[in-house]
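Technical note accompanying the year-one report. For the benefit of new consortium partners, we illustrate the data format agreed upon in the data management plan: each record pairs a sequence with a structure-token string. No post-processing was applied to the example shown here.
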Amino acid sequence: MTNLEVAQGFRQLADLLENNPDMAQPYEGTTSSLLFMSHKKEQFIATIKAFGKGTKTNGGDTLDFTPEFPLNCRVFGFKSGICEKRPVTRVVPATEAQVIPERFISAVPKHEVTTMEYVCDPSFLRVEDKPVEGVELASAEQVAEIKESLEVL
């Protein structure tokens, strides 16, 4: 279904609601959210820009956007489709051995731990927006490296 076809359907629904004040209201968009799911970064950016102002949040596996809109709408995209996953290594400091009644906790030497984290291209955030909490934004250099590595593939 195209966006034009969806828009025509919503116009017909609007006419129904206006002409029939006693009919039930739709659940989605009033009580629950009317969801807009984006699988690609470009679509996520375009959808957020189309809505304008709103609130972005880190939804764990998703980035979420709740626009300032008369209906209850929510835009979300899976980080796996809109962000770059990369390894991040952190140094964990050493700990001393501890004796707790009936337990012994051995010392742990200083070591490194590598985890995979999502780095999102800052281009999906407009200048007036704040970064999404819990999501590290890539620097211009990192974005260039990511784009260059994608061209090699």
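Partners are asked to follow this layout when depositing records. The CA atoms of residues 41 and 138 lie 14 Å apart.
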